[in-house]
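Onboarding guide, step 5: your first structure request.
Type a short instruction followed by the sequence, for example:

Predict the 3D structure of this protein.
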Amino acid sequence: MQTATHELSKLVEEILKLNATKEGTRVVLVTTHVYDERMADAFRIALNNLNVDFLRLILPPKATPDHRFGNPLTKYALEVMKTADLVVSLSSYTWWPMAYAPSPVGKIWMHSDEFTEVMMSKIRWLDVMIPEEAMRRLFPTEALIKRTIEGAKAMAKAKEIKITSSAGTDLVLRKDGKKGHRQCGVANEPGMWDNYGFALVACGPLKNSANGKLVLQPGDYMLQLMTEVKDRVEIAMKDGRITKIEGGLSARILEKWLAQWKHPDSYYPAHIGWGTHVEGAVWVGSREFTVADAESYPGIMQIAFGRNVFDTTHPMVGLAGQNVTPSHLDLQCLNTSFYLDGAPVVKEGQIVHP
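The system replies with structure tokens like these:
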């Protein structure tokens, strides 16, 4: 349900305050050429109410030689963004089934050299890509922020990740020296990126380190395919790469999705972690379910495959990967246990880390 724009702007003010926005803060409010005008107006009103110095930047569409929309971040746009303290990027409320690479409306792509270039200038960046209902329901509490940061600290210290499940998952990955990445909807320090409404801990594992078996069960979710897993899927991994996918319909769909990219690095893990939004996230089947819920549901184990060239100057934000395949696929698994150096963080889908 939508409320009046002035009511939405009050919520936006609270979001901006969480993100260290105050009088004198320099903000660039950016969208692609397709955007939600009501949401943009709410942010404009809120920024004016906070007496912020801000610019409104609308990026023009950029087409690639094969007639697809490309990354709209031009050199000129990058230089404008680098002058800001905070970039707020508003995306239209769509989630596309066939690719993570630029969406039909020319989405700003975080796994790109251009995005990394902006973040290396130590600006702050907040993405907003969920509808108003989810913005209210997933507002980050102090407990959520603390829970997520503590999880990221534990992830940063660990060298080995192990995931298991009663369904048969038994997978080990290494992350020696890699960041513990946190998302809790707050970009309040230089170099931070965040995605409002999302709450999770993750890391980019070492490329060749994954060995074992990942089992998907009915009720799990394949995000970019926008579909629940319908039947058991067994994924064998050796020296970091998927070597075999076995099962029924869901296995064949997954197999075809990965094969379409014709790139060997589509089969390597991009990141792995767990969801932390105990307070508000809902699961598949709820009318309110969004991409933020899929990645933030408490205790969900998320493992992604493909591109992971996303990094910032902040020690708790980024994957620092080198995988440049055009694909990126997120798999969300229920009832999975997650161990860091042998210590349980999640047991059968329930967060147990103190």
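Each response can be followed by summary notes, for example: Residues 142-157 form the longest helix (16 residues).
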